[in-house]
Amino acid sequence: MTDRLTTLRKTIENVLPNVEGVLALRIGPGGITAPHLFSKEHSEELDKLALWPKEPVPDTLKIILRAHPDAKLAIVCRGCEERGIVEMFKHSQLNLDNLTLIGLQCEQDEAEFCRCAKPFTVHSKLTVGEPIEGVPDPLTAKIEAMSQPEKQAFWKQEFEHCIKCYGCRNICPQCFCNICALEDETWVETGRLPMPNPSMYHMVRAMHMTAKCVACRECEETCPADIPMAVHFRLIARDVREMFNYEPGASMDQKPPQLLVLEEGEYERSGLPH
Amino acid sequence: MYEPKIIGFLCNWCSYRGADTAGMARMKYPPNVKIIRVPCSGRISPELVLRSFREGADGVILLGCHIGDCHYATGNHRTAKRMPVLKKLMEYTGIEPERLYINWVSAAEGEKFTTVIKEFTETISALPPFVETMK
Ligand code: SF4
Ligand code: SF4
Ligand code: FES
Known about the structure:
The complex is a heterodimer of chains A (274) and B (135).
Chain A lengths: L3 H12 L5 E7 L5 E6 L10 E2 L6 H11 L5 E5 L1 H12 L8 E6 L3 H7 L11 E3 L9 H7 L3 H13 L6 H5 L28 H9 L9 H5 L7 H15 L30
Helix pairs in contact in A: 5-10
Chain B lengths: L5 E6 L3 H10 L8 E6 L7 H9 L4 E6 L10 H19 L6 E5 L5 H16 L4 H5 L1
Parallel strand pairs in B: 1-2, 1-3, 3-4
Bound molecules: iron/sulfur cluster (SF4) (2 copies) and FE2/S2 (inorganic) cluster.
């Protein structure tokens, strides 16, 4: 059995002639891994192809597509990144006809690092590595088990560390609105740190990630204050599954519940009075 | 005992008139609710609810037309879809989800209006002032 890096390299070499570029990770100057657009003109760069640490590849795709909406590209994506791409597609952020997905299956230690329930791709036709089972998320379980005052104290302390750099929003593959509620002073006041509790910034963001967050944890990884905000998004994702029967990124054609009309049976599951 | 501050967002077409019906019949209900008339319950975004809390409300009550009776057909579907999620988020953040209450009151339901307001005021009175818990 060949290792994932070798197989991935071969797969990319096969795909390169048919596309304008392949988005994957490369070990750059200073030994730092970052997203890179590999091209057939510089295929020797594949010597520096990398797998880990995970870096925000879909976010880079978003930036490239903004400047070149019709680019014909391929992207190496893990399970979460593939889900992100599917949601971007559903919200008209990209054209899947122009995008070749190369699914990279995560290994046990990677899945554990991400506390990931679905460390595998399901849509990519080309795949590298063997899919493994999801792993539990001890952090979310721990926070969920807290009492109400404990939760309150925990999140207050976490949100107090936020410096409002907007990094978590900027890195998120699912944050693409041109006008962002988090930049509206009606909701998030400027010039106050720590921000008043409860944090409007984080609560509004959590509401806006509903039925969109694909649990890639890019936001947590980028946060300079180490705030475990994806815990909120994961708990809400579970509710969205129960209430709306929707899982972001799971299927290509299921309608996202942000379409604000109730579907059959949704009201019954909402917990509101009958 | 403290007097809780409650913000009530009432849909113009049903619940606001339900409040009128209650008033006209001289039904008694606690005066803690500051009523804000809105064109439709679907106008109330999660941001508005959160900001009400941030401005010091101890509870927020949102009353709209019954499902199927919304003046704008599906405006209250939005309410029914997003407010339960907001309640969950409040719970996960350590805020009592009871502080946010959603129900449907038609123009004729003056009685229901007073009951709902009474019960909600009791629920909120039993909780500590919101700003205290946030300190
Ligand atoms: S985990 Fe964070 S970055 Fe990833 S989709 Fe969810 S909110 Fe966005
Ligand atoms: S990345 Fe962290 S510090 Fe920056 S705005 Fe988000 S939560 Fe706050
Ligand atoms: S008009 Fe009353 S809820 Fe929409």
